[in-house]
Amino acid sequence: MLLKYCFFLKFNIKYIDNVLNYGEDFVKKLKYAILLSMSAAFLIGYSIFDFYTKYNELEFQVKKNYIKTQSQLATERISRKYSELINSLEKKAFVLYKLGNKSSNEETIRLILKNSYKSSFDFIGVVNADGIGIDSEENKVDIKERDYFQRSLKGETVITEVISSIMMKGKRVQIISVPVKSKDRNEIRGVLFGVLEEETFFTEISDKVPPENYIRLIDSEGNYISYSYDEVTKVKATDNIWKDLPKLKFLKGNKEEVRKNVSQGKCGYFFYEGDRKKLVYYEPVGVNGMYMFFVIYDDYLNKIKNDALRISFKFSLFIVLGITMAFIAFMLYRSEKVRELNKSYEKIKDQQKILKIALSHSKIVIFHYDIKSQMIDVENTLYYSGNINKFLVSEFTEKFIHEESQEKFKNLLLKIQKSETAEETLKIKNGNSFEWVQVDMRNMYDKNHNISDTIGVVSDIGKLKEKDLLLKQALEIQQFAAQKYYLKIKVNLKNGKISGINGSEELENIDYTNYIRLHILSKAVENFSELQRIFSIKNIKENYIEGKKIPDIIFAIKEFKKIIWLSAKFSFKEEEDKSFVTIFLEEKSKEVQLNERAEKDSLTKLYNRAAVVEKIEEILNNEDIAPSKYIFGILDLDNFKQINDKFGHNYGDKVLVETAEILKNNSIFRGFWGRLGGDEFVFFFLKNKNINLDKFFYSLIQKLAREYEKSGEKIKISASIGITENFDEDTFEDLYTRADEMLYEVKFSDKNNYKFYKKQ
Fold first, then answer.
1. Among 5, 114, 334, 471, which residue's CB has the most CB atoms within a 10 Å radius?
2. 258 Cβ partners below 8 Å, 6+ apart?
């Protein structure tokens, strides 16, 4: 809506400018006032219409947000309650650590139990390592055959399923048990347990649920643990949700989907009609496979929704009126400034004349480069004969650029299309001869961040540059004549010693790590930490053991005040029961390096943002490609921020590299992967009717679900994906917007999933 509003304002501003340019007489002011009134009326009317067309979408979203929030609060209360109960028992167990030495003193134990007893449990008990003891009611107990006793005796804290208790005369209860350890915590001397009556425990939770809401708790088999209505209902042992669901009249969702999500530990919604229409949100509790089903009546939700929509409508109307009033105020202010702007314009024209005169007497040339039309407009003609100062790029290159500099000039224009600045030293024609000049180019941007103009400045550097160039060429010829590669190093992986350099194997006791640090790392001009990791003997050995190939890398070193670009290649070989790696260091041209680095992300080696946008736009603008034949998607890692926050950014970089390798190994389509930044990856694939997309993406998210550990702390990583097809006249921004909407819905629901955009 906002884009439509801006377009409408732009149209009006253009019209108003025309009015103002013709004067400010009464008739034109009247037309101006009428136009503003019509604009305001149109905007308000359109806003109201647009609001009500999205009513249904907003309605269901409000309902889903409310029930999800209430369910999460109830689940949190249950989880917190269990944590409090476990903590209470563990504190009591600590008091009873000398139990093993006083097992015969029942009076002492009774006193301890009585003094530590609280109303959280219906009763508690303590037993020796043989399973025999007493409870807080002074009854003798024997639980040596109980599973929870056996598990706690091994050091485990146990929460049982809901069971029928003989001690509670057949009532449904849960038992929590913890080990009782010696003072030094090395010996388990008994078990402390607490008994919770199910009805009392879960009634306390249900009492905090808002009116017109109720919850149902089920165990891992689907049996009801507890449920609450407006009236208290007893749970029968035979009650089971999987028996009840087929009886329901589903309005949204189905029983198969619910059962599948529960089996996979996922959250979800469904809508059904019984005595009244009800919306249900279900999610795992996190204890013994229990699930909570949070139920709310639809007519109650409608009341909440209507209140929210009324507030939203009033807010939207306020914004529209505010924008309209601001626009009117701005245009009134603008009308007062028109005459001042005209005066400023005349002053600028005078200054331009002065600038042209100054340029005509200097050795500086200013030119404009139009990227769309591929035209060059030269401001003065110091280096150019004739009266024509506008050229096509191809014509300009042929006429005025020396043939040895033509390729550099083409690369210069390509660079300026991808970045804000570019510079190069070129040989350009001046009359009948050629001179060396420095060409600096810069992009200018409009308010929408689009390139509005590209300006170049040509400076004469004369014979100084010619001498520098001759010297550089002589050094390069000398270097390449001496050797094909910069270095060839052979390393024994067992002892980390160099066994040969440049073919000579008469070496010994040369430490590889020290040699690399001295001759490579100390001379590196960027990415020192990354190079240190790649060249480390540890990294090389790990790749060799795992049978992995170390990717080629390109980097720069500084040698005798000169930047040298090198390509490093790693080759493994077995010789005489020994393992070796040979490292080839070849020199690469700067142009090749820049082209490769311009397209690839330095960390993951996937295409970077600029390359992704360029490649996609190029395909979308190809008229030979029919619509809806490509799929575009955004992949975002779940919980990645926790990795950086808790494990550090270096560890996070490792996770990103591993993710990129998984993506590369799962490229079964024609297309490519890219990284936009952070943990945000994208793909653009040609559709293949022989490949099942659901199967592919389901398999991919399974492979991306990993667990990382550091210092005993574990963090689970998964992936969420939003996907769309391309349609007629799509741009990259169109694809990104739709895929991002799908990604947001996945993130909002349960993450670790994917979703396709469906065209309305």
1. 5
2. 245, 268, 270, 282
pLDDT in tens, 195-212: 888 777 776 666 667 766
Question: CB neighbours (10 Å) of residue 679?
Answer: 21
Amino acid at position 659, single letter? T
Nearest residue to 280 via CA among 266, 264, 297, 265 = 297
- Compute the distance between CA of residue 171 and CA of residue 226 in angstroms, rounded to an integer: 13
CATH code that applies to domain 604-756: 3.30.70.270
CATH 3.10.580.10 fits 96-201, yes or no: no
**Residue-range domain boundaries for the chain:** 96-201, 362-469, 483-597, 604-756
List C-alpha distances in Å: 149 to 131, 223, 227, 255, 467. Answer: 7, 24, 29, 38, 90
Q: What is the pLDDT of residues 130-185, one digit of tens each?
A: 989 888 777 888 888 889 899 998 889 898 888 777 666 777 788 899 998 876 66
CA atoms within 13 A on the CB side of 264: 14
What fold, for 483-597? Beta-Lactamase (3.30.450)
pLDDT score of 635: 95
Q: DSSP for 467-526?
A: HHHHHHHHHHHHHHHH-SSSEEEEEETTTTEEEEETTB----SEEHHHHHHHHTGGGB-S
User: Are domains 96-201 and 604-756 of this chain identical in fold?
Assistant: no
pTM attached to this predicted model: 0.37
